[in-house]
# Entry
Amino acid sequence: MSGINAIGSTDYSWLFNSTNNKKQDSVARLWNAYGDYQSNAQTSLSGLSEINANLKSVLASYDEAKSTFNLEFEENMSALSESSKQIQKYSFSVPKDGAITKTETTGENGIISSTTTYSKDLQSALDVVSEFVSNYNSSLKFFNDNAAVSNRVANLATVFSDATYRASSYEAIGLTVNAGGMIEINEEVLANAIVENPDRVSGLLGDGGLATKVDSHISYANSQYDRLFPSAEKMLGNQLSTAAIYTSNAYRNMTAYASVGNLINMLF
# Structure
């Protein structure tokens, strides 16, 4: 029997022959290689864990930004739609008598001051226009502020600024349109326009006028709703795809490899 000498004692010389030395060297190399791998794997796992945490943070921020954008979009479109419908059905015909009252008072220093008051009907008409203009400006500002989000949003900023095309007509009734499409109200001019020519005011702002055009803009914007805010992949680019690769399958594979390595460690 190999390994047992003639007098029955055990012979260990086979452990030191060249063939078995090669086996020992192979095991030693395997062990050293595994030791290096295990060290590198732990470092890699630590880095991947950090990437994974950062990715989750980025995606959470993306979800929050998208939700905020969608909520503001819905609020602006809803408010503008309501005020648009109100102004389209509103009658700007108000009684002229007592519609505008101006009172002059002289102070102790001799300076004369003038106070203008409006009748209840005229004030109501002014409030309707003011609310519509305020919601219009708010919606336009929303699209301008978010124009960098996507080309679709930038396009809507252009669409909603088209009041500039009839700026001179609106100015005649007290609405000044700046270069960016925002509207400012000259209350005194608007009040006089309502009293003197309510049909003109209604034609420019109400049914068939700016409010009708705004309705078409709102419908167009709503049809773009699901495509206004880009997907996370499109917004964050290749970095997101790369991070996702390293934090999904690669992360799990690295963990699996480390587990296998630990098993080998136990076997040896």
User: Anything to note?
Assistant: Residues 1-16, 245-268 have pLDDT under 50 and may be disordered. Residues 66-229 form one domain.
